[in-house]
Structures are given as structure tokens and as C-alpha cells.
Amino acid sequence: MSLLFLRRAKPLFTSPSQASVASPRLTNLLRRSFHGSRIMSEAEKKIVTEEELERKKKKDEKAREKELKKQKAAEKAKLAELKAKQAKDGTTAPKKSTKKSSKRDAIEENPADFVDPETPLGERKRLSSQMAKQYSPAAVEKSWYAWWESSDFFKADAKSSKPPFVIVLPPPNVTGALHIGHALTSAIEDTIIRWKRMSGYNALWVPGMDHAGIATQVVVEKKLMRERGLTRHDVGREEFINEVWKWKNQHGSTILTQLRRLGASLDWSRECFTMDEQRSKAVTEGFVRLYKEGLIYRDVRLVNWDCVLKTAVSDVEVEHIDIKEKTLLKVPGYEKPVEFGLLTSFAYPLEGGLGEVVVATTRVETMLGDTAIAIHPDDVRYTHLHGKFAVHPLNGRKLPIICDGILVDPNFGTGCVKITPAHDPNDCEVGKRHNLEFINILTDDGMINTNGGSDFTGMPRFAAREAVVEALKNKGLYRGAQNNEMRLGLCQRTGDVIEPMIKPQWYVNCSTIAKEALDVAITDENKKLEFIPKQYTAEWRRWLENIRDWCISRQLWWGHRIPAWYATLEEDERKEVGAYSDHWVVARTEEEARKEAAEKFSGKKFELTQDFDVLDTWFSSGLFPLSVLGWPDETDDFKAFYPTSVLETGHDILFFWVARMVMMGMKLGGDVPFSKVYLHPMIRDAHGRKMSKSLGNVIDPLEVINGVTLDGLHKKLEEGNLDPKELVVAKEGQVKDFPNGISECGADALRFALVSYTAQSDKINLDILRVVGYRQWCNKLWNAVRFAMMRLGDAYSPPLTLIPETMPFSCQWILSVLNKAISKTVDSLNAFEFSDAANTVYAWWQYQFCDVYIEAIKPYFAGDNPAFASERAHAQHALWVSLETGLRLLHPLMPFVTEELWQRLPSPKNSERKASIMICDYPSAIENWTNEKVETEMETVLASVKCLRALRAELLEKQKNERLPAFALCENNVTSEIVKSHELDIRTLANLSSLEVLLKGEHAAPSGSAVETVNENLKVYLKVDRAINTEAEQEKIRNKIDELQKQKEKLQKMMSVSGYEEKVPANIKEDNATKLAKILQEFDFFENESARLVAETETSGNQQTEQKKMGSVEEEQLLIEQGLIQEELKLYAEDGSVDINGNPPLKHRTGNWKACPFILGNECCERLAYYGIAINLITYLTAELHQGNVSAARNVTTWQGTCYITSLIGAVLADAYWGRYWTIASLSSIYFIGMSALTLSATVPYLKPSDCIGDFCPSPTTPQYLTFFLGLYLIALGTGGIKPCVSSFGADQFDEKDPSERVRKSSFFNWFYFCINTGAFGSFLLVLVQENIGWGLGFGIPTVFMGLAIISFFFGTPLYRFQKPKGSPITRICQVLVASFRKTNLKVPEDTTLLYETETQELIVASRKLEHTDDYKYLDKAAVLSLEEANSLEFFNPWSLCTVTHVEEVKILIRMLPIWASGIIFSSLYAQATTMFVQQGRAMNCNIGSFKIPPATLGVFDCITVLIWVPLYDRFNVPVAKLLTSSDNGFTVLQRMGIGLFISIFGIATAAVVEMVRLGMAETGTDVSLTVFWQVPQIFIFGAAEVFYFVGQLEFFYGQSPDSMRSVCSALGLLANALGSYLSSLILTVVTYFTTKDGGDGWITDDLNEGHLDYFFWLLAGLSTLNALVYVFSAVNYKQKITS
């Protein structure tokens, strides 16, 4: 009974602090109940924290070293004793002196024994006689690489019979230094190549270097200027090329040397350079062959020209940015930023005095090269200009007026387009169609040339832009400029603005070769190319299906000079190179070119000149898989190794490099150059940012390998070229990310970390701390081998074979799991899942070998116990095999440390040992090592150890290394035998003093012990000398019982499914019955355990003390029986709410009307702030922002709709995540920021719109628009977000389970609406301020009130009741819909009690269950248990099976929809009160004497109506209606809303009648003197409708909503208001369209006397009547929700 009470008490009170107001007995009981829970959670956290693991690791290492020292001392002592016995005198040394001698010998170590001797370069590393006590990356990684390289271990043999495996290293730039991307490439490729080499392949990894045309030329040009003050043109082409070669020979191999430091096992004998003789030969051959096949051609086209580099760049090397408006950008070579995003208009005078035509352009400087003006042939405005000419105003050139229906859109701009064929792609096509002159006005460096006119010659292009505008202004032809959206192309390398320029260039026709490259990747019957990850296949398709011809010529000096010669004939009139397109010959050499030219121009004299341009760097790179193997020659390498096996590179150069290699490889090599493409992610910093010097987050791999201080990082930044501001930011970034610099990690740790990161999609967020972690793991490997070497001894000789079945249990296990690790690693490598491979190897070494096996075998080596002689020998063999195999398994990932450790291992006698681990065989699974039985038993052992360690952590706070006795209680003999047979392993791993095995039924549970469940057949107990914490144990037991209860419910529900007995197979029914029996057995066990603990507590004498502090268990039971506790509980709210401390709230201290004044005060001030903006917003838009009536009305209604629609955001946040309190607090702050921005927009001169000058009203500037609308929509987010929360939060202050509070809640909604209108009433005074004093003050006062609203809300915090967030309602709705869809074919059982529902409590926190209803039965399928779920026990997946409550939640929402929809029409009418009613009032007489009433203030009568009606309704109408309806609240909510709908019809009809009268007076021509007070009746009627409808709507959505969706449902009501506003906008738009489409003025005009606003009002009245009738039908058929 006591246990039952504790379980029931738990949901009521959640912490001991809240119980202080209850009786002492109840308080103490609750403290006892929850104290245990707190201890459990803390203990569990301690077990799993990294700090604890780190401390444990250090302690283990210290203990291990201490034990080794003891053992060594003991061995020396025994040796001394043996020698003494053999001495002639027969005397023995005293034990004391022996120990002292041993200790002294152990301490007297020679430090030199632990230091590696110096190794001559290229020789095998000389190792120290003793392993160093700590791993040092610098010491371990020294000397090995030079020996590997000199031993030719990396070299592949073209004549080998082994199957080939080839990777080509993506050639790094000759200018580059090793960066982290290179390190990733190297780590992955070296892992692959080492694995394949060890797996029996003839593995070749070819290194190469790219000449990097542009980058290298720029570097050497800067060097020339810096050292000699010369340009390349000063020294000439030949000398400049020599300078580049000198630089390359001095600095070009830096990165390849750095790759050696990473351990990259490249075949350096095949190292190549894209500009060396063989590669140059291949480039020439490739160009010639492609030219001969017609795939390379020369053409004059517009190219992307970089004025900084003075060369063409390809489309894929151009990045585009979107510019929305006038924008200033920095352009290389210009001191001042340059303007972009402006469309400049100017006029061209027409020849013969015919007038002018106006054109517009974003690049006005190009008008210097205009050669025509285009118009549309069908444009009647310009028919008279056909065949005429315009005159260029700056150079007098005649420009023909041409007709072009393709380019010109007559509806855009003026319908006239300037044509600059030489500087615009579209104009270029027009020029070709109309045979226009192409005039290039720019030099290669972006200056205006002589074609631009003498006034502009020599000007930089963007300086000329300003000069041209000024010249146009001087001639009176400038017509202004305006903002214009545009896309601007920038060079990826220089950031220069790309200039379209007409240039002759060489191109590769890509259409056919691209299709071939695409087919081999996507066509099943011809598939030869696979992308990993597969997602890049789609990217491949996108690139190649939209490919353009490739411009391959570059106007550089460094690179492969194009093998094309121009023949200048003696008879040619124009002698410049390239003047005639048919004078080119392509050949391999000049001699061959001369022969071809002689044949082509037979009998003519000519001179040959080689093309000055060079080939695009990617052309030579595209040939790399061919050229590195000797192509075009038929070399042995090419025959043996082409095509290669895998290409590994970054996904960013999929098109730049990969596509071009495939296209050229297939065309020139006859096959795809590789069959697989692995694209690795891009590396970012730990925060996901792109690495940048200016951020200080660039990671140099060598700094990670060698380590660097923070000062060292700073110094490297200072040596760069950052400006002072960037330098400060970069240093701050380094201080933040690397406060202590970067620790020395070594190449192995860096490689392993990078490979383990490769699972991260397309980006790697590299955290250096992870690399540091792997460096520490290397230390663990080091110590593991060091431990093993001590256990093996100097004389140990490994066996040639193993017989696992004869070995001890732990040895069989380590071999079995090693076998699995081998298989999984190989499978992962084959699948290119390198991260999985790394994690598998890591997990075996860390968690199985080090954490378990090494610890488990320690007893075998503790002394020379003869009983363990056999086990010790077997353990040595298994230890050696595990180490040797594990090191080979790890080697491709960590080559250095594995080589060093492997070299230290002893080798079997009489067998040849390989020279290096890297040429050993890679491990493969050995069939007889796998032992599933042993692994299963070890799982039981390790689970037992884990439970015992958890108990130790829980029971022992400080002396955690204290050995304790333990007990294992087994359910059956099988389990008992398993535990007994592995008692030593459990005792060793769990650090126990003893382990006693008990059999259930024969032995009782040990007293004074804490229990933990291992599995259904095994429980373990740990005994401590002092008393255990029974409270904590009881809490554990309660949690277990709760868990078992859920499992029991699952099974019982499943076994009660309709058709279960008939359809479920007998074996499954039998299994389920067995499972249920086990659950009941477990249930019984824990009930007994609980009773045992209670009995022990009583007999230990603690009972009396506990009675004084808490009251006895018997008293507690008696209290329940007498109902005293229930009386105490009535003092608390029972609706699941909590107070500020998280405890059940006392009714007399919290909530109710005590808390409501603060909430109502908040609402009143917030509404004043909102309406202070909203009510006169249309006036501000028309008077200050100069918008038209329709545009302003549309903006207002759209904004108002947004204010409502954002309520969904606040509602979801409140119900699902933050709770209503924090949602209101957060979004109110955003609200205040928006109000402040709005005030600034009306106050600060720069942000305030300009006043009208006469009839001219200037449009607001972009900053003015931006500030105003930013503030406006921040207000929308804030007000919308808190709207559904404030009313619901206020209603939360009343306990629904208390009848008196339930009645007060209904009254609360009335007064809540009263406060809304009180605030609105105050806002009308603000209208007077806004229109008579100023908008700055008019917006500032609402801002102050918003601040007061926030203050009022926070003041009430101690008095509030809080409902906890209950999880996402959207998720639950989706789950029901998905689950019902998935079970479409299932039948809903007739007995609805079989539908799934929890039997204890609803799954949603503090929510009531909902009773099943019969409508929408399709949704009930979501709660039907299917047989598949029954068989698999998978019936707690909410996407497959939902509770009845969850289903009913969705049904409630569906039932609400018709009621909800009725509010849309009503709200559209209400929206007119703030738009069309105001405009109607402005057309009436607003004067009272000399005072003019702002029409917007007439809404005050609406507020007055509400302020009158609410008290009348609450105090008079409700009592009277009670007598008529027998309802506690008078009218039902639905009746109240219906009355409001019918009243609204009369309101809008009244407005229509008033407008008819006003229009009648206007049409008669009389002075319109109809006073604005004629609007009062319509406004008054609308106020009455509000009180009925809107207050009823608030109460309806709160009361009828599921407990977990109250904010969301309140938001639905507000969403109806939003849609009403949008509907109002739509109606306005539709009405305006249909009433003006025939040229009429329409119903709604700027001058209402010219329109028919009355028709518009009658239209709305008709819609409202239809809406009211539909509502009545829906309300009559509405089903109320039923809770249980």
C-alpha cells in the first residue's frame, strides 16, 4: 500500500519545495519520494560524462604503472633470492634488503634507453631499447617516411601480375602551400592506396603538380615589380618565362614536400608537372587531334573579360551576385566604390529634327560604342521612325533605327533599346542579325580606347561612366536614373567586374562529348561511371545537359602556348595577326605547320606567327589521367594502368576538372579515365564558417601536426596582407577558437580525424579538439602495446597458428570481435564509407581491446600463480595476435604509429618477417575465430559489469575504488552457470572483492544491498558497509514498475486486437504469452524488492527516526483511508498547472482574479499601442507616404491580416515549446522594438518621408520604406504572436475542475474584451495627436504604452499559474493523418474500446483524455492495432499508432472548421471599419464649428458600444438568459456568436443606406453637408455585434479546444480574422478590377463622389447573410468535446 501511495503521489507534486504548504507528514513523504529521483539522475550523469571517463582513464593508467613497477620489483626480488640460494655459502639475503634492492633497481632507470638513436636519412628507423613512457608524435613520425621512400615501398611495377589499382593525385597548384583541403585529400587517398596495396593490388598513386597559369604568372609579376621594378612587358615574353621557371624550380615543390609529412605514399618516381616535356607533348597532341576532328575551332565572340588579369575567363569562373537597388561596390583598381543597380535614361536626338528617342541602360559608358537603336516592328508609336537615323550626341555617329521583334519588348520602358554589339550578349546577336558594326571601346585593361572619343580616351571604364552622364547632362539629354535589379558578374579569382568584350578565341565544341560523358554515368546499359555520394549524379546531369562550348584560350604568357600558327600572306591587305579567320593552321610543331601552310596556300609567300595566347589551365588538367601515364605514347604505364580506378577530389570542381577529364579521356584515351568518382566534403571551421584569413580561422595542417602557440598564430597573420581592421578581427577569432594555441597532434591524429569526418554531408565542420582527442587516443594505443610488451617478455615467440576453442573465454571473445571488426572495416572501405571504417577500428581498439580485454587478462599475469599457467600462455598468444592484426587493420589510417608499434612486436620464429607493416597483408576474417556463443555470454558479462559500476557510482561518492562484495541473482540454472563460469571476469572488470551467485527460489535477495536489473534473467546486487539510500532504491523500483506497466499494456492491447486469436500464428501467440509472463514475473520481483527494502528499513531501527521526520508508512496509509490528504489537495489547482517554482499552485495564493489585473492591464496597454498605430494607419500611408486610396487600403488590410496570421507562430511556440508566459515575454520585446522603429521613421529627418510640394509628392526613399515597414511587420510578429497567448494565459488562471472558478473564467473573457476596447478607446485620442501635433509624438506615445504593457505583465509573475508546454500539436495532427492513411485498408472494430489508448495517464503532460466519438471514422484507423504491429510489438510508434485522444484532437479541429469559417466573412466586414468607413467619413462634413473631427476617431463609438455592452452583458444579460436557457453562462457560446453574426448584417446595411443618402446629395450638386455623425449608428451596431461574436469566439476556441492545443485553437480564431482582412483586400481588388475594366471609374475611387461605395456595402451585406445561414446549420449540428 505504501508503494502504491508513492506512485500516486508522484504526479501531484514534482519537487520537495512545493510541499512546504502541506502537512509535515505529506511534505516529508514527498521529499523522500523525490530525493531518490534526484540522486538517480545525478548518478547516471556521472557515469556517462566525459570528465568522469577522463578521470577514470588517468586513474587506470596510474594504477597500471604502479602495478608494473610492483611486478618488476617483485621479479627482481625473486631473482636475487634465487641467486642467494645458489651461492656457495648457502646464505640468503633478508627480505627487507631484497625489497630495498629491488626498489632501487626499479628506480634507477637510464633515460637514454627510452630515446630513439639518430637514424641516417633513408635507413630503417633505429628504435630505443625501451619504449618511451608517453607517446610523442614528433619522435614516432620521424625517419619512417624516408625509409619507406628509399625502400621503394610506394613504387608500382607496370609489369606486375597483380591486379592494378590506380589513383591520380589532384595536382596542386605550383604556387600553393599545404592547406587543410589538401590534407583531407591526402588522408583519404592514402588510406585507399595503402589498403589496396596491403590487399594484394599493384597499387599506384601518381603525384603531379599543376602549372596554375594565372596564379603563377601573377606571383612572378609581383616578384618582378617588387625586386626589379619591372613589368613582364618590360622584360619580354621569353625572359619572363625563364623567370617563371626559375621561381618554379626554387619554390614549386613545397607542397609535395609537405605531403610527405602527412605520410602520403605517392610513387615519387612518376612525379610529373603539367608543363614538363611529356605533359606538354600530350597537351599539344590533344589540341591537334581535337582540332582535326572539328571539336576545336576559332571564333570571334563575346567573352567574359577580366580587366585585372587581362584575359578571358570561362562562364564557370564567373560568380554572379544579385543587386536589388543602387549599391556601392569596391572594384579592383578603383579608390572609390562604384555604383551599380541604377538604370540611367537618356535621349538620342533624331536626324532631321524629328525629335528624340529615350533609351535606358545600367552601363551608360557603353553608349560610346552604340551602333543602332532597336524598336519593335509592330510598335505604332515608332512606325514613322522605320528606316530613320539617330545621331550620337557625343561623336556624331549616325545610328540606324532598326526593327527587331526578338529583342525588343514594346511594353517595357520606352520601347526603344540601345544596341552595343561589342559589349552585350543580346546586342551581339542583334548585331549579327542586322549586320551592324561592332565597335570595341575598351582596352584590355579596362580603359576607354580611341573608339570612345577623344574626350574619354584613357579613362577607366567606371570613371568614364560618370563622365558620360555629366556630358549628357551638359547637352540636356540626361533623363534621370532609378533603382534597378540586376545580376553582376565577378571573376572568382580577382573580384573584378566582368566586362563582355568581343574577342577572337579558341573553343571546344562540347555538345557531343558532353553527351557521351553524361551517358556513361546515367544510362544503365552503358554505365561505366559511378559517383559517390550518389547525389552528385544529378549535379553531373545538370552541368552536362546545360553545357556551353568551352573557351580554352587565355591571354597569358605562362602556360601551354596554343599550337596554332597564323599565315600572313604577302598579298594580304591587313597584316595584323588574326585579321583573316581562314589563315590559321594547327600543327604539333612549327615545321609541321609550315608544311601544312605551304599546302594550304600553295604558290603564295607567307610568314608564320604562333598564336600568342596560351591554353586554359584546365585543358592540361583535363588530360592529366592520360598524360601522367605517358600518353600519347603507348608506354608500359599507359597499357598497365589506364583507365585508372578511382578519382578522389572535392565536389567543388566536379565540372571544372572531373567533367573535362571524362570528356577528354573518352575522346582521346578511348575509355572513361576512372570508373568511380569519390567527392569529399568541403572543410569549414568548427562553427561552420568558410575558412578565411580575415576571420583568423584558417587551419594549417602542419601547425596541427607540429603544434603552434597563440603567439605563433598571431605572427603568421601579421606576415600576411590583411589590413589593420581585418587583422584585429582575425586575431580575436584566433583567441576565441585557439586560446592556448594548437597542441602538437601529429600526422596520424590529423589523418584519422579528417577521415572520420567524411560522413558529414557536403561540409566538414572541423573542430581541432577532435584531432587532439585522437592524439590522446594514440597515447592509449602506445600504452596498450607497452603493457603487452611487458606481459610478453623478451623471450616470447608468437605461435604460427591459434586454436581459439582451447583458449580462455576472454581470449576467444577478443578474437571473435576482432574478426567482426575486420569484416566491417573491409566492407566499409569497399563502400567508400571511410568514416564507418575509422569508427569500427577505433571502437575495437578502444572499447573492446583496451577497456575489456587488457583488463580481463590482468589476473593471469598477477604473480606466477601456477593455476593460471595455461591461461597466461593463451593470453599472451591472443594478446600478440590481437595487437599484430589490429595494427595492420589500423595502418592505412595511421601509418606512422602503427609502423613503429608493429616493428617493436616480436615475430614468430622460423618464419620470414616482412620488412614493413605497409607491405604486409591486410587482415581478412578467419572463419574459426568467430564465436557467437562467446560473444553472447560476454554481452551478459559486460552488461553485469555496467550495472555493477553504475551501482558503485551511485552508492560510493568518494571511495569509488573500494572493492565491494556483489551478488548475482539468476532466474534459472542456465544463467547461473554462465555467471559462475565467468565469475573471475566479472569480478575483475567490476573491481569486486567477491561475487556470489544466487539462484532464485533457493536463495533470498541479500540484505543491505542495492539492486540493478541486467536482463529478465539476471539481477545484480552491490553491498556496502553503511546503510543504503532506501529512498533512491524505492524510486528506481517505482520507475521500473512504471516501465513494466507500459510494456504490459502494449502486449495486452496487442493481444486484444480483433482477429488476434484467429489470424496470428500459434508460435507468435506463444511468444507473446511468454513475454507477458516474464513481464508479470518482473513486476512481481520488483514488488518483492520494494517490500524487502521497507522491511529492512523497519528492522534497522530507522523507522522511529523516519516517523519523527516524515510519519510512518502506516500513518500515511491511514491518511489516505481517512481522506485527509485529499482535503489538503483541494487547496491546490488540479488542472496540471504549476506556480513560478514549478510546484502545484495554491489556489488562495495564485491565479484567479488576483493574477488577472496584471494580464488585463497588459492587454489594455498593448491594445492602446496597437490601435494607436492601426486605426489611423491608412491616413499615414496616404498623407505621409503618398499612397493612393486602393494601395493604402490594401497595405493596411494586408498588414492587419499578417498581424493575425503570425498568431500561429506564437501559438505553436506556446503550446509546444516555450509555454504561454515565455512566448508573451519574448514576442512582447520584439513588439517593442518594432514600435521604436516606427517612431524613429516618423521622427528622424533622414527616415521621415518628405512633404509634398504643391501637387508633387516625392516617393519615400528605400531607407524610409525599409525602416517603416520593418517596424510595422515587427509589430505584426509581436502582436500576432502574443494574441492567442494572452487570452489563453488569462483563462489558465482559472481551474476548470473547480466549478466556481469555471464560472469566473467565462466572465474573464467578457472583461478581457472590455480591456481590449478600453485600450482602443484611448487610442482615439492619439488620432488627434497624430493629425494635429505630429506623427512622431503620435507613434511615440503608443511605444511608451507598449513598454508599460510589458512591465505590467512581469509584475504579476509571482501570482501566475503556468501550464507546461505539451509538445507540438502540428506533429500530433500529422501523426494521426499519416497513421490513418497507412491503415486505410484496416477495418475499425465495432467495439471502440479496442482502439488504442493509454490506461494510466494521457501521454501529453497535464492534459485530459478525450472520449471517443463516432464521426470521422476514417481517422479512427490511426488508433487501430494492426496484426503486423501486434506481431512485431511495434505499436508505440506514433506515426503508425495513435491514441484515441490524439485522434479526437484532430476530429475536434475538423468539427471546428465550419464555425471557424463563419468568422472570415464577419472579419471582412469588421475590416471595413478601419478602411472604408474612414474613407467614407473623409467624404462627409467632419467639422464642428472650427474644429475638424478626424474620421478615424469615429471608431470611438464602436469602443463606447463595447464598453457599455460588456458590463450589461455580464451583469444583466447573463442572469436573465440563465432563466431562459438554464445555462450557467446565459447563452451558450454558439448562440452568442450567432446573435453577433445577425447583428453585423444590420450594421453593414446601415452603412450602405448612409452612403446612398450621401451620394444622393452629392449627385444633386448641392454642397455635401451630411455630417460625419451619420456614421455613428452603423458603428454602434457593429460594436454590439463584436461583444456577441468576438467574445463568444474567444471562449469557444479556448473551451472547445483540446487541452494541449488551446493557444493553437485561439490562433485559429485569429486566423479567421486574418483571412477576413485578406478577403477584404481580395474583394476590394476584384471589385476594382470588374468595375473599372471597361474604362469606368469603378465603385471605389479616390473621389468617392465619383464611385459607388454603397454597392460595395450591399455586396458585403449579402455575403454576411449567406454566412449567417451557413453558421446556423453548422452550429445546430456541432458536437461538443467530451473529456474523461
UniProtKB/TrEMBL annotation:
Residues 51-131 are annotated as: Disordered. It is a multi-pass membrane protein. It is found in: Membrane. The keyword Membrane applies. It is an enzyme of class 6 (ligase). InterPro entries: aa-tRNA-synth_I_CS, aa-tRNA-synth_Ia, Anticodon_Ia_Val, M/V/L/I-tRNA-synth_anticd-bd, MFS_trans_sf, POT_fam, PTR2_symporter_CS, Rossmann-like_a/b/a_fold. Belongs to the class-I aminoacyl-tRNA synthetase family. This is valine--tRNA ligase.
